[in-house]
Inverse folding.
């Protein structure tokens, strides 16, 4: 799950775009799209700063999904990948 602005900017593969619906009038959201998610797989949620993805992770974990989020968000990940820093990332 990723923020729609980032989805347009990044060429992310193996992703499913599902919005975190905050307000009733926001349109289709996460609870409308749960059938797209496989409970047998680890789900990584992402957004620019990790605030929305942490909310999504909390919700998905509460209903039985194995879920993680990117600490620091996609912007934090980008910073960690700059200038050869990627070799220091521990998975």
């Amino acid at each position: 799950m990723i923020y729609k602005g980032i989805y347009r900017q990044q060429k992310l593969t193996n992703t499913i775009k599902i919005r975190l619906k905050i307000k009733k009038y926001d349109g289709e959201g996460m609870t409308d799209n749960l059938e797209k998610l496989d409970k047998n797989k680890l789900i990584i949620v992402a957004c620019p700063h990790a605030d929305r993805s942490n909310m999504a992770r909390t919700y998905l974990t509460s209903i039985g999904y194995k879920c993680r989020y990117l600490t620091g968000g996609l912007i934090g990940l980008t910073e960690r990948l700059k200038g050869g820093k990627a070799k220091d990332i521990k998975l």
User: Anything to note?
Assistant: The chain has a mean pLDDT of 77. Residues 79 and 85 are 8 Å apart (CA to CA). Residues 4-85 form a domain with the Oxidized Rhodanese; domain 1 fold (CATH 3.40.250).
